[in-house]
Design goal:
By secondary structure, the protein is mostly helical. It contains 50 helices and no strands. The longest helix is centred in the middle third of the chain and has 50 residues.
């Protein structure tokens, strides 16, 4: 924009940031006023209606920041504008706002790093120095100065950053000139030197002014650092935006914030790692590039890169670790982290450095295990170092370190992927296993023993990784695992001779470890057997491919061996015999440990032999009411055994759902939800009858209705995984997930929003088919408030973007009015009307809506229904008939809509009054009944007062005002006759009044009469009647009362 270029050119000439302007205030006052006007105009235009204008203004601010043309007094204002525009509805504006903040970071006038703690410490130091340098003051001066300083802004004008960098002498020379400058910041009142203090004047002119300027600059710097730290939360929300540019720009800005050391940037970077799982390739590439820039390319040295990766891994949660592993695998595959490179060498050095902290060594091993997932060869030459780290972490109970032991075991588990089965890339040829006497297995034995020195809960993750390493590296993992299970069983169930207190005295710690090992060994062995089966299939496919190639080559040479191959197959030789042998070997491998039923020639597997013990422990009251660790280990073992065999799973699903209902520990409930998700994925037909319980029964208070937010988050994540992978039917139960859209916990709500967003992207948009069922179930839920219902339906209806689907939904919603209008409460009709109002109806859909008048006309008695349907008509006014080719057609359509609106208004008034009359007949009292009675009573009193006044005039002046007065004065007998007649009339009126009071309650209320001008004598009666109605004791007035009042 021209204004920005003008300000930039003015700044480059030096007129904006040089102190010479302050010495010539008269000459530069117009320029300063014009500059201030330009700045205010740019600030105002940041909130312009046009998104293009807002974006261009932000770009102008960015250019001014790059040219150092933004005054320091406006620095915080501009930063606040940029942060505020991060929530703009236009993606173009959000992108411009993030570019502005990145530019302000790069060209900030404060420091190369912006940690708020450093600025706060410096500010406190200089404020203390300023307080020490200030001369003593009397009480009156102190009170006046304190009141004045409270009104001072915490920013300084442009050019003051130069004052902070100048020597004290130069600052003192220019201090007196600054007072004459016409700026926005009020200047300090001139302090006079104290009598008898010769050094007071030079100190005030020099050092005090310089320190005061530094304090103001530090306040501005601290405010800017705090603002940038507060922007991290907004940027984390933009990472989940459906617009790819938002995620990409937010990633770049988070990288800049991390480089400048802004508070909270580390958390933002960890949240950014999850973008590697995005569907958009550009977003995934941005996440990978961000890690490369922060920890590899931007690192000062390989050791710094290694420490940065290790620090991020140590502070990351489980999901963030998975994202970081995926990014490192991509970097290793792209050779940006070479297996023998400097960064990898630095990681190994950090892991083996015994002088470093054990937490740092464990984090380095975690990063190495992530890299080994892609290139397992990096572990081969360093088995000894990893075994030494594992052995050192398990020496004694005091020196044990579970984190270091887990990291070392995780590296060993990645050293030989696939174990004896190999991988798909190895084509059936696996890496040779380690000898059984290798030091690695001796180190693993220190973990996989009942008397391991690893304490408490820290042992379980180490044991999990150790069992995985055993199956990956051992030449005979089946036999080694069976020996481990036996050793733990012997420790958990000692013989009566070995137990001091008898067979009933069982060590709970040993029993918990045994149950964990039993379940983990069974699960690992299942994975091992399936890997062997895949290896067999790969070998078979490879053999068939080679046989086909040989046959083709033989056919090309003229050799026909087809008859010999058929004869070999008939005799059970060749490929048929080999296939049969491979299938038998696979079955034997599966039954070796996992057979739940004894087969011919094969007994029960060692894992299945202890299955009844696990079932008995899960149902035992002592275990159910005992320690949470033992109860959790038993349920975990049961769920893993159920994942092995389908029949065993069907038999004990009732038990595991019962334990889920009665479980008091929230961690165990969350673990059971994850286990049930695995079972539903493995045996969907077995779990399908329990779908309602998997979603959660409200009376039980489990799953999605759990009181703990963490359990609800696990439940909604598991169910979303099953639904998106088509492993579970959603119709009939999806309303439970829709309620989570407005869950009080933002984590639960975010997962639910992600689920429905992914559903809307599927073929056919399943949300369209689910909306009628969702409306019925959510509208019938009494626990949902109308506000929550409307928010949920607004979000769901936002996924409908096709005219055909909108037209179909509008037709379905309109037909629902026939049933909703007959309900005992107006809530069903209100909900349907609201959903209809959220749709953008096409001309055809609105025409059908008008044709369905008989459906919703009975529901127009309700004001909310009428308001919602009136909103539908208001939308149609803007668009209905817009596609008509002729002007007459458009005008006719508009007239048709207006006529329909009038028809609906008339029907609403009629239905509303009829409904009120019916309710009054039933004894219902409305809130506005008192007001209507008050108005009717006032109108009645005024009407009677007018009638009485008119009658009184006629009686007093039968022949006119002048003649009547003369006649009355000259004929006193006529007065006596008039008084007698008046008394007779009063007696008759008393009798009529008594009759009227008896029938007053049955008299209909008089219709409101038009207001008329009353006489002064009738006014007191109207006032009295109004007050009587307000006191809730209305009485009927008579003519005698009116005359007495007159």
């Amino acid at each position: 924009m021209f204004t920005g270029r003008l300000l930039c050119s003015d700044a480059s000439s030096g007129s904006l940031d040089r102190d010479q302007d302050r010495t010539t205030s008269d000459a530069n006052a117009p320029l300063l006023r014009a500059k201030q006007g330009f700045l205010d105009l740019l600030v105002d235009r940041t909130h312009d209606v046009s998104a293009f204008t807002r974006a261009r203004v932000l770009q102008t601010w960015s250019t001014m920041a790059e040219k150092k043309a933004i005054p320091l007094s406006h620095w915080l204002v501009v930063a606040d504008l940029g942060i505020g525009r991060l929530g703009d509805k236009a993606a173009l504006v959000r992108k411009a706002a993030m570019n502005l903040l990145a530019t302000m970071l790069g060209f900030n006038p404060f420091a190369p790093t912006l940690p708020s703690a450093a600025f706060a410490d410096s500010l406190a130091e200089y404020e203390a120095k300023l307080a020490a340098m200030a001369p003593p003051k009397n009480d009156e001066e102190e009170s006046e100065t304190d009141a004045f300083e409270k009104q001072m802004p915490e920013t300084i004008e442009e050019g003051d950053e130069e004052d902070a960098e100048k020597p004290e002498g130069e600052s003192a020379k220019e201090g007196s000139d600054a007072e004459n400058q016409n700026t926005e910041e009020p200047t300090e009142p001139e302090e006079k030197p104290v009598a008898g203090d010769a050094d007071a004047a030079p100190e005030l002119d020099g050092g005090v002014e310089a320190v005061r300027t530094m304090v103001a600059a530090l306040k501005t710097a601290l405010g800017f650092a705090v603002q940038m730290g507060g922007a991290v939360t907004v940027l984390c929300r933009l990472l989940a935006s459906a617009t790819p540019s938002d995620a990409i720009e937010a990633t770049g800005l988070l990288v800049r914030l991390k480089q400048f050391g802004v508070d909270g940037a580390d958390e933002g970077v960890r949240r950014m790692l999850g973008l590697v799982f995005s569907r958009d390739q550009s977003v995934r590439d941005a996440a990978v590039e961000a890690v490369d820039v922060l920890f590899l390319g931007g690192a000062e040295s390989p050791m710094a890169a290694a420490k940065g990766l290790a620090h991020t891994a140590s502070a990351s949660a489980l999901g963030e670790l998975a994202a970081m592993e995926e990014i490192l695998k991509l970097l290793v595959a792209d050779n940006r982290v070479p297996p023998e490179g400097a960064v990898m060498t630095a990681l190994w050095a950090q892991a083996g450095d015994k002088t470093d902290s054990e937490a740092s060594r464990a984090a380095a091993l975690t990063v190495l295990s992530m890299c080994a997932a892609k290139v397992p060869e990096i572990v081969g030459p360093r088995f000894g170092a990893v075994a030494a780290a594992l052995d050192g972490a398990c020496q004694t109970r005091k020196s044990s370190n579970p984190a270091l032991a887990r990291g070392a075991a995780a590296v060993l588990a990645r050293a030989r992927p696939g174990g004896n089965a190999g991988t798909s890339d190895s084509l059936g040829v696996c890496t040779p296993a380690l000898p059984a006497a290798h030091p690695v297995f001796a180190a693993l034995a220190k973990v996989l023993t009942p008397t391991s020195c690893l304490p408490g809960r820290g042992w379980y993750p180490c044991a999990e990784q150790s069992i995985a390493a055993l199956y990956a590296l051992h030449p005979d993992p089946e036999g080694a695992a069976a020996d481990i299970v036996r050793s733990f069983a012997a420790a958990a169930f000692p013989t009566p001779a070995e137990s001091e207190g008898g067979a009933s005295n069982v060590n709970a710690a040993f029993l918990s470890r045994f149950l964990f090992v039993l379940g983990e060994v069974g699960l690992r062995h299942l994975v091992h057997v399936e890997g062997l089966a895949r290896a067999v299939r790969r070998a078979r496919v490879d053999r068939d491919r080679k046989a086909a190639e040989s046959a083709e080559a033989a056919a090309a040479k003229g050799d026909d061996n087809s008859e010999e191959a058929a004869l070999a197959a008939a005799l059970g030789q060749g490929s048929v015999s080999e296939d049969l042998h491979l299938d038998n070997s696979r079955e034997l491998a599966e039954t070796e440990l996992l057979a739940f039923k004894a087969a011919k020639g094969v007994g029960k597997g060692i894992v299945a032999a202890y299955a009844p013990v696990v079932v008995a422990l899960c149902g035992h009251p002592a275990v159910a009411e005992g320690h949470a660790l033992l109860r959790g280990a038993a349920l975990a073992a049961l769920s893993r055994l159920m994942a092995i065999d389908g029949v065993f799973c069907e038999e004990h699903l009732a038990l595991i759902f019962t334990r889920l209902r009665r479980e008091s520990d929230r961690g165990t409930r969350a673990a059971l939800m994850v286990a049930l998700g695995d079972l539903a994925f493995r045996f969907p037909n077995a779990v399908e009858p329990w779908t309602q319980h998997l979603y959660g029964v409200r009376e039980w208070g489990n799953s999605l209705h759990d009181s703990d937010a963490g359990v609800r988050q696990h439940a909604v994540t598991v169910l979303a995984h099953l639904v998106l992978n088509d492993m579970m039917k959603v119709k009939g139960h999806i309303a439970e997930m829709a309620r989570c859209l407005e869950d009080p916990d933002p984590r639960v709500a975010s997962v639910a929003r992600l689920l429905f967003h992914e559903l809307s992207r599927k073929h056919g948009n399943p949300i369209y088919n689910l909306l009628p069922d969702l409306l019925s179930r959510l509208s019938g839920d009494d626990q949902l408030t109308p506000d929550v219902f409307q928010k949920i339906m607004t979000r769901l209806l936002g996924f409908i973007d096709k005219d055909r689907q909108t037209e179909s939904l509008a037709d379905k919603f309109t037909n629902r009015f026939a049933e909703a209008a007959l309900a005992s409460t107006p809530k069903p009709a209100r909900d349907v009307a609201f959903c209809l109002s959220q749709l953008s109806l096409s001309d055809k859909a609105f025409k059908k809506f008008m044709d369905g008048w008989k459906m919703y006309e009975p529901a127009l008695y309700d004001k909310e229904v009428y308001a919602a349907l009136n909103g539908v008509v208001a939308k149609a006014k803007k668009s209905y008939g817009g596609k008509s080719k002729s002007a007459d057609g458009a005008d006719g359509a508009k007239q048709q809509v207006e006529e329909f609106e009038q028809k609906m208004n008339a029907a609403h008034v009629e239905r509303y009054e009829s409904w009120r009359t019916q309710k009054r007949a039933e004894g219902h009292v409305f809130d506005d009944d008192y007001e209507e009675r008050l108005k009717a009573a006032e109108a009645q009193a005024l009407a009677e007062a007018e009638a009485a006044a008119k009658e009184a005039e006629e009686e007093a002046h039968p022949l006119g005002p002048l003649d009547g007065e003369t006649a009355t004065a000259e004929n006193p007998e006529a007065d006596e006759e008039a008084e007698e007649a008046e008394q007779a009339d009063e007696e008759e009126e008393d009798e009529e009044e008594e009759d009227d009071e008896e029938n007053d309650e049955n008299d209909p209320e008089p219709s409101p009469a038009p207001a008329k001008k009353t006489s002064k004598r009738a006014a007191p009666k109207a006032k009295k009647a109004t007050e009587a109605v307000k006191e809730e004791a209305p009485t009927r007035s008579s003519r005698r009362a009116l005359r007495a009042n007159r």
